[in-house]
Give the backbone structure.
Amino acid sequence: MDFETLSESFSTLFLNKLRTGLAMLGIVIGIGSVIALISLGQATQQQVQSQIQSLGANLLTVAPGSSNAGGIRGAEGGGTTLTLTDAQAISSDPSITTISNVSPEASSRTQVSTGRNNSNVQIIGATSVYSTVHKINIAQGSFITQRDVDAISKVAVLGPTVVTNLFGEGTDPIGQTVRVAGQSLNIIGVTASKGGTGFLNQDNLIYVPLSTAQKQLFGLTHLTSIALEAKSPDVMTDAQNQVGYLLLSRHKLSDPTQADFSIFSQQDILNAAASTTGTFTTLLSGIAAISLLVGGIGTMNIMLVTVTERTREIGLRKALGAKKKTIISQFLTEAVILTSVGGIFGMIFGILVSFIISSFAKFPFAIAPSSILLAIGVSAGIGILFGWYPAQRAANLQPIEALRYE
Amino acid sequence: MIQISHISKVYKIGTVETIALSDITFKVEKGEFLAIMGPSGSGKSTLMHILGALDTPTSGKYILDGEEVSKLSDDELADIRNRKIGFIFQAYNLLPRTSSLKNVMLPMRYAGIPFEEREKKAKKYLEMVGLKDRMNYTSNQLSGGQQQRVAIARGLAMNPSILLADEPTGNIASVQAEEIMAIFQDANEEGHTIIMITHEADIAAHAKRIITIKDGKINSDEKNRSQKRTKKEIRSKHGL
């Protein structure tokens, strides 16, 4: 392919604007949708992962098993088998070498109110370790301290959503009181927003001292969960095993299948979410691949029509001495120009679309270099593959028949 | 020099055989101006395709400048057409939306001649056919006669052994046809061999030798003793 073939192909394509535009449209849409859909899939995946990561990557949660009283099995997690001494054992037992922080927690959902407003909120009885383990940042005031827990203080730390619901946007609730289960609690802090929706919402919570929650609010003696922070993400499995064996022996159980508690890691949730969003991305890629294929076939169609339309021209060129490879390179050059220009436009189109969608949906905007490489590779491939067949047909035309063609 | 000996061409469509040419033999020396005449269906177009290396005969030999054309592959035939044959078609067959200059340069491009040389030669031949001021016109901006003159310039550009014209004046008004014949006679005087296929006796009269074909066979092959000369004023008008 020399410069003259290239410039001639460009001018042929330019002279037939409509035909060129139509042929290119398929590629533009195909490549564009590949890039847009893959980038959206990855953005969703990143979004979910970052939300889950924000809950704490080294986090292990011990939840009580179901209660089994009088042969009636209750709900999973509803048991009363975990106690504060269990939590103390985990932090002090010499067999536990992989846990850095232990956060005993007792939570329950209840109605809370101020003078005018009320709301249904998850109340978490926590110790000072909670904010470390769950990566809670304080926006105003302070978090619950060990002294609050020891003194069974009637204090509360509110999530930003609770503040908005109870006091309205932008008000400072510090020093005011909130009524929970018949008790007036003094507000000492507001946590920073963590975002998230549904079960991931970290902002619609009220934190109170663990002792206050157990003794003053809910009258509990057990814990609803124990959150554990492992020393590093690499020792998660070890930590899970160490804690599991300790609790089994403390609860006098020999068979792990009889365990009255369960331990799960943030990684388990992350994996589940990743596999869901992974499936989603695969599905999107599949749809994109189909549109790319359809686009490619569209291009081949137009190229074939072009060959038919230019039969006389091909006949003439052969009569004047064009060899097979000259004709092939002419048509192939046109196809490759068509698909590469289409590919570039498609790339711009795809990036633009994914940028617009991600800014509307408040997703992180991410373009994977792999999707661009894929798109470039595929559009070049389409150009050669779908250009080759029409070019081959053109080159094999008999000059007399081609010249006679009306 | 062209030597055609015992050329036959049989078309087979299913089980039906159509004999287009049977046992044609003749020679054309360098510098001749030959007209091949015959009614439609006589086989003169088939003969022209074989002479132009666009088609191969079923049997017989075609030797062009000592090279046996009848045995060549597709790409070798393309090469022969490029170097040894200049085509002039009834329908001109110029590339649409392409300038006269580019059209004339095209066969030289397939021969791999460098751009500057191609351009220089193309300009020379366009000037020769009287289209010096029409070089950058595209084919659809030219009249039929002008388009045919571009085609002649293209045919001459590679300085071929034969200039092969198939009904060159078929689509052209008689005044312009006279101009085309003037160019042919001029090119012939400069030493170009011309083979012209026509069914018009009036046009054939401009040649030096006339072969008539009927039912795929040579009917007559005679010297034209009264070659019709184009008028001086037509020739001078184009600066020929």
Q: What stands out?
A: DSSP finds 13 helices and twelve strands in chain A. The mean pLDDT of chain A is 83.
